[in-house]
């Protein structure tokens, strides 16, 4: 029997004769509200794709609180999130950078502490926790979202149009930091580098695609190039309607994308079949919270028919706030049924 790692590699190459590989994403909310169902899910459908971190020698002095509890949580950069619901990460209400010229950008801490792990210890953690799994590196580059946390979403949109020199300097600093992390993690035994930014609204990209190509596409190219240089795969997550930039990501050599494919329409994604592996998902806006078991099975078959070809699909979905546990269970059950040999 093939290992989880080999099933994922075969899937990325369109040569998978086994079941579709699996990965369940969960918010802490799911464990708080449905602990018994969660235990059954992870027992019956163990992940083939896993993320494994490494012990750090240093930690950021900015971190305070718990991101999954009601109250305030401050991240490694110094951004403070206000959380009103247990198990769901909150929002930044008071951004660090207030100056329009970004002259106060030094209020944001670049967490060099994330680079303080030992490669040998990282490899030991990977082997201990996921010996036969497809292993994602234990960090996630997210330049666009981190800039929003630091500056505030509305302010950042204006800044991206005006591009004050202070913003460009900070973007370069942040990007260099993420590249350094990619380089170090690419030297470990992880199979894949992972990055994310939510780029879509319900019906369009959050910024003009031309501006995205000018400012952010080169960043993702660097992350992907680092992965390829070291023989690693590259995966990305991005919520919302991102159809305008998916061909760009395929062109850069991205291996798999976690996207809201039902938001964009499966027929619109068919031209990308075989160019990208779709790392999930099943609609969590309507189907997972309100659909029937038959709705879920139909949706999985639609994804298979549109995008699956001896691979190029990973059976992934997110058990988030409001999702029915029985629907999440049916997602993985259906994938096993229709792709199992």
Write up this protein.
The chain is of the alpha/beta class and 341 residues long. The chain has a single domain, classed as Alpha-Beta Barrel (TIM Barrel). It contains 15 helices and eleven strands. The strands form three sheets. It has a six-stranded parallel sheet with strand order 1-11-10-9-8-7. The chain has a three-stranded antiparallel sheet with strand order 3-4-5, with no helix packed on it. Strands 2-6 form a two-stranded parallel ribbon. Helix 5 (143-151) crosses helix 6 (153-162), helix 7 packs parallel to helix 9 (217-229) and helix 14 packs across helix 15. The longest helix is centred in the middle third of the chain and has 21 residues, at 165-185. The chain is globular.
The helix fraction, in percent, is 40-55%
Count every helix, treating DSSP H or I runs of 4 or more residues as helices: 15
* Shape annotation: globular
Number of domains: 1
Average pLDDT metric: 96
Radius of gyration: 20 Å
Q: How is the main sheet built?
A: 6 strands, parallel
Q: How big a fraction of the residues is strand?
A: 5-15%
End-to-end C-alpha gap: 12 Å
What is the CATH first-level class name? Answer: Alpha Beta
Structural class call reads: alpha/beta
SSE topology string: HEHHEEEEHEHHHEHHEHEHHEHHEH
The beta-strand count equals: 11
Strand order of the largest sheet: 1-11-10-9-8-7
